[in-house]
Predict the 3D structure of the following.
Amino acid sequence: MKNFLIILYILSSIGVAGSGAAAPPESAATAGTTTIMVFGDSLSAGYGLPHNAGWVSLLKRRLQTKSHASLINNSISGETAAGGRNRIEQAIKTHRPDIVVIELGGNDGLRGAPIESIRNDLEAIIEACLRNKTAVLLAGMQLPPNYGIAYTQKFQDIYPQLAKRHGLKLVPFLLDGFGDKREFFQADGIHPSAQAQEKIVDNVWKILRTMIKSPEAVAYEEPEISR
């Protein structure tokens, strides 16, 4: 965990520097399928990875074989919960998703934003989804310990608190199972490597498959994640 927390510290500055671009736009899903939209930051935008090597692309391939769902990646490197709040309505209007995977908030926390502000922005995104009859899968994140025990714990608590309040499905920690293993990160020591992407997919799929109305998805047994 220590290595991950150090690594996470500078995620936002890299996104702001512009070296990570928004994920390529993807077309709306075919009618009759479950449409899933990933709404996140550099961890979901595939920063530093070959094209189609990120966890969202891998999830898209898994969906093609295990369900009748389609996937749209609407993630931007450096994105914050505040930024997501500003664009969620348009994203929903454009792509009309049935499920939104929200992977945001980490960059806000790294900038030391007030906990209440982060919570309010994430909640606004959630409420926009629910108003549009869109199910939500919330992906939790954690912060480095140098932000102080009180702040980091309050930040971590945002995700389960919002999930409980709104009756949402929750991935407790997106990088669970490898965040403390240096070999699963890129040479920059910051972003998960290609080797780690399948582990992220497993963390998400474990919960997401229960939300998809597909016998294949529900029956799928995920591979055991090596610890």
